[in-house]
Write a structure and sequence with these properties.
This protein has about 190 residues and is of the alpha+beta class. The protein has two domains: about 120 residues, Jelly Rolls (Sandwich); about 45 residues. Helix content is about 50%, strand content about 20%. It contains nine helices and eight strands. A four-stranded antiparallel sheet has the order 1-8-3-6. A four-stranded antiparallel sheet has the order 2-7-4-5.
Length: about 190
């Protein structure tokens, strides 16, 4: 986590050590949840190891996977965390996972203590916004084959580590359609 925080070139070593002192270690077993729909998110996690998927239920009660989070990343139900309202999303561990957890109150204290924390959290928010915008654009602009090719180029680890049913949902297609796309690319 220290290397990740240092990579932004915003926080001092003392800032990073303070942040680390405010975290608690947590293990989540494969299949368990970081947060479930209907709860208010009161913390942010830093994924030390493991993979998570974020999903919600459609009006037809189908799971729709919209995000994967790997190690060396922050994880949270951000809208719920920011607004302190109940979330509509579920964040589930696809593997056993280890996290460092920091509560919202501690983040607010950090923001009040040092302008660098405001800069850092602004940077994180901007990155999340850009990822979300790119995701929306590719889902709305491109066909399934192009979305799959984009995934092969930009996130090949998804193809190796994510179960096909979740991958298909993430791409906005059926598992059967995903199998056809993969078969056509193999040749």
């Amino acid at each position: 986590m220290k290397d990740y925080l240092k990579s932004f070139n915003i926080l001092s070593n003392d800032d990073i050590n303070l942040f680390e002192s405010k975290t608690t270690y947590k293990r989540i077993k494969k299949g368990d949840f970081f947060i479930k729909e209907g709860y208010t998110c009161k913390e942010i996690g830093f994924v030390i190891s493991g993979i998570f998927r974020s999903f919600y239920y459609s009006s037809l009660e189908e799971e729709v996977t919209y995000c994967f989070t790997f190690s060396n990343s922050f994880i949270s139900a951000y809208s719920s965390f920011l607004s302190q309202t109940k979330t509509a999303e579920n964040i589930q561990a696809l593997t056993d996972a280890e996290l460092l957890i920091i509560p919202k109150e501690e983040i607010l204290k950090l923001e009040r203590s040092n302008i660098n924390w405001l800069k850092f959290f602004k940077c994180i928010a901007e990155q999340e916004y850009i990822k979300m915008e790119q995701r929306i654009f590719i889902l709305q602009k491109e066909n399934a084959e192009k979305r799959y090719n984009d995934l092969m180029i930009n996130n090949p680890e998804y193809l190796q580590l994510i179960p096909l049913n979740y991958l298909a949902s993430y791409l906005g297609i059926t598992q059967r359609h995903l199998s056809r796309i993969r078969a056509n690319i193999s040749f």
